[in-house]
């Protein structure tokens, strides 16, 4: 350059002073402010002819091609003064490292671009976020989400040192056989394409990134890939004006900053044979510049593509593109030949020098507005974490949730309910391993999983049909081939035969994780969910939507068939099942919560407070943290998973007995102000008969805390063992009560337990005293009034209809022992490792079913039960309890600082032990369990916290969990991670429970 570099930098600082702090990109390059004019003039005048020409070139750059490629890029920057780079595959760290290296080498900052149609993941798929492709976005009805995506991609691009996004795609895709656009288009409707293209553009440019509309004049109706050959579009000018050009005209009017000229032959616009539109002056200059009035930058599509190189020699492509009217030559094949050809065209009068100057000045002005007036070197440190931020991940989930499209539901199966007489079956097609979709289904009930290939044989078909019965609901999932642009789902005749047979026998729900054009083959089926892609976030969103955790609002962006037309889509309402979402979506700092809980879990396991645990936090009906730690035992034999089923101990009091009593109160079958003796005549003549039920629930009836019933059944002496009077090692005669798998009690032992309860004194009359005995009696009350044991009553009225497959007494009847950690090495009663049988001795003597202990369950299922209570008795579209009865039971008993009816509540007396987080509201309710469990629900914060462990293994005398206050501190962490309301949720505060239920708070 003519100016020294130091003087040039001084000019940059002087003339770019007004740019500092400016973010919105201004697209009209025909109008300059005075500072812009001075800067562009000064820089242009300082350049040599080659430096000016170099600004019109944007070359290919990779971060995964090694030193020879890097050297080539550096040579082109040095020798040809190129104006920009277009980055492709690699890693974000290496790309930024190279960007900074290349920027330091260039006299004038480089304009850096990427194809980022679905985010940085389009080029860096294994390292950065891939948002939904535009076809899935075309299904979304809330266009604000498209803007938010554009804004977030802009943030990520700034962080990576990128200035230009080659997006949005404005092609109106009306050809199902399009091999290169397909899922990259917003769809077949010009208005939908325009509206979403505008919002995407606005999100980018409002945040300082140059957007580029492509592929002008419209690549949507082709069946040839322009990377391989020159497509021909034979439509009339009237048709082009009506469809293909419509979105481009609109976005030009509303301020698109750049447009990419495609490689298409369009005889109606330029009749010359083999003349690509990118090299056509009638199309680029006469139509785009003059007729349509575009005043921004024009990029060519990649000039390496066969659609443009097939009929032109080296350098001729670039010269023809400049002559046609383009400003920036993207990916030239031979830059030296291009320079020579352009100079020759100028000398021959085919290109005017004034046109070159105009183009260079446009590029310089665009650089000024992008802040490329002085070098900027973003730090590589912490890059990946900042690109893949929690907020960015949250947005991805929101986009996929909003795109899910229930094309039709003739049988009214969605949201799916647990069938009354059948089971739920998942049938994976073409996926041999469990998928994110099928794994999430497991959170909504007991699912029978089947799988088959894409062309099932007659034998496979018969085997599958033998596993399916009338009354079953069969959820079939079909997955795309993973192709980058097409996402094709193949539906074979063999597969159709199987699906038809299932549909005749059971209720069939078909879910398609791929291109919606695949729906044409599925016209014969009545319930169809289109999920657009096999992306794991889409799979998760589909499963949640099918079960009603999220609404379904998407509409088909294309016509697949007469039964799957454009805009088809049913809207459902969320039926308030527990869903899953990133913590940030509900105002919780996920990184902070995870770091704190991880540290506390590590401490607990290091101190041998418990061998393992599961921790769950849910807010506003969404599970935002669910993590398993450690192993079933200290021998590291089996890792804990979120589906591990723990002995819940005294959580049974609220999760089974109290709920059952609440239901019977709701039905008018129990009066809380009556006595136990009113319902249980066998108590006549005992001191238990006059006990008030309300007082028993509140532990204010004066009962003993507990009785060690088992001790009366042991042999006397220093080494007591189960007496043969009461026990046998196998089931025989009257010895039918299973205490363990090798210890059976005589059924008269149960009568003995009851008699000791009846005969026990009331040492705590008039005082609060926590008591197991009251809940033995409450379970008997449930049995007597309902005719069902508390286990069966709770299962029939709550667990089974809610799809909570793990909540059960005597779990080995239905749950694999591999899911259940042991609770103790019992050397004082059962003389074995207790696993899959209730730990509590008294409950064990009752055959595993008692009102105070015996329930097992996973963290998710416990949380769902308490979410139902927070939702005022509704869950999954069904009412289980009235709001009034929930309020009555979760309010403090008169004069109590801690107890509700059945439920434990936050201790309000500062002089007593605080049983939960200091930050919990006074309305929080739940219970602790002896084996190392806890569940707390806070209506004020709409939060559920669950902690499950087997701290009693190997010895119940291990009290380190309580001494460390692990359960309380982890709950503290959930509250501490909550964001202030002012920072909560980018699109507004999440609704309260009452608001979500459509009720007044």
Derived from helix and strand composition plus strand pairing, the structural class reads alpha/beta
Query: Per the principal axes of the C-alpha atoms, what is the gross shape?
Result: elongated
Number of helices: 34
**Overall average pLDDT:** 93
CATH topology of the domain at 5-380: TIM Barrel
Q: Would you report the number of β strands?
A: 31
The CATH superfamily of the domain at 5-380 is Glycoside hydrolase, family 3, N-terminal domain
CATH class of the domain at 5-380: Alpha Beta
Family: Belongs to the glycosyl hydrolase 3 family.
Protein name: beta-N-acetylhexosaminidase
EC number: 3.2.1.52
Signal peptide: 1-21
Structural summary, described in words:
With 1001 residues, the protein is α/β, with parallel strands linked by helices. The protein is 35% helix and 13% strand. It has an eight-stranded parallel sheet. Strands 15-17-16-31-30-29-28 form a seven-stranded mixed sheet, with helices on both faces. A six-stranded mixed sheet has the order 9-14-13-12-10-11, sandwiched between helices. Helix 7 (144-159) packs antiparallel against helix 17 (390-403) and helix 22 packs antiparallel against helix 33. Residues 1-22 and 981-1001 have low confidence and may be disordered.
